[in-house]
Amino acid sequence: MTTRCGFVALIGEPNAGKSTLTNHMVGAKVSIVTHKVQTTRARIRGVALEGDSQIVFVDTPGLFRPRRRLDRAMVAAAWGGAADADIIVLLVEAHRGITEGVTRILDGLSELPKGRKIALAINKIDKVEAPQLLKLTKDLNDRFPFSETFMISAEKGHGTGALRAWLAENLPEGPWLYPEDQIADLPLRMIAAEVTREKLTLRLHQELPYQLTVETENWEERKDGSARIDQVIYVMRDGHKGIVLGKKGETIKAISKLAREELEEFLGRRIHLFLQVKVRPGWLEESERYSEMGLDFKDGN
Ligand SMILES: Nc1nc2c(ncn2[C@@H]2O[C@H](COP(=O)(O)OP(=O)(O)OP(=O)(O)O)[C@@H](O)[C@H]2O)c(=O)[nH]1
Q1: Same domain, yes or no, for 11 and 151?
Q2: Region entry G4: which residue ranges (predicted)?
Q3: Ligand 1 within 6 A of 155 CB?
Q4: How far is the C-alpha of 77 from the C-alpha of 262, rounded, in Å?
Q5: pLDDT by residue (tens digit) across 229-252?
Q6: CATH number, domain with residue 165
């Protein structure tokens, strides 16, 4: 049997639907989907199997205009991820069309070395009528020579099968990166951290959630079928620690409960979740943290 395997980078503006598409393709909730933009901080991968192909999805952070240093690292990571991938898929929102952000991404694509397959996926087609969709398809293809165009609804699953099949056929021949029986376990620690970060984000609406990170430090399988998961929530300042903990620890308790419930549902078994809050001043500026968060595409592959 000839196997195929490779990386597929999903790029697009914030909210284009990259996480939704990854989740749909992989069939598990690997990255969080919220209405807030720029939630995808870590480089979360999902692995999909299609026939003899193993498709490793790279869910890049949004390509937006960088401000702080971390933002710049994210944009660089997104382009780095795209440049290293075997196939790039640009997601454009059907109803928003060619925005300034899309124009910037098209310019960026033109600067990448030639020869790589770059597909266009027009997403959220459920929001537009056919004539508008056809015009956008033509306009985008006039601007960039895409290998292929797909019209999809990541949320409803329309057209995603065709995209997946095309990706599977176009990846390079080679051995699978992940043994079949390990695929399910692969991103679990990351998923668990993302679930907790999602609950924190939803609970603490202000600026704060963007200034914290969650790491799964320990994962212990227990004989009774349950699992113990230890996580650390890193914040920037002592004051933030107080906010995350809440009065008499009420906030962290509520977050822990919500995260545990979602994990139990996702994993289908009992979970003992232990959260700790630690202050790590200036982590936003610590460059070594970026690679730990998976922001350097070349690290840890
Ligand atoms: N109507 C419609 N909504 C969609 C579709 N795909 C995604 N969405 C919605 O669009 C929003 C953004 O989707 P995400 O998957 O979080 O977008 P993203 O590109 O990962 O965003 P960032 O992580 O911020 O870069 C969510 O509210 C999704 O439910 C679609 O096909 N149709």
Answers
A1: yes
A2: 123-126
A3: yes
A4: 29
A5: 999 998 888 888 888 999 999 999
A6: 3.40.50.300
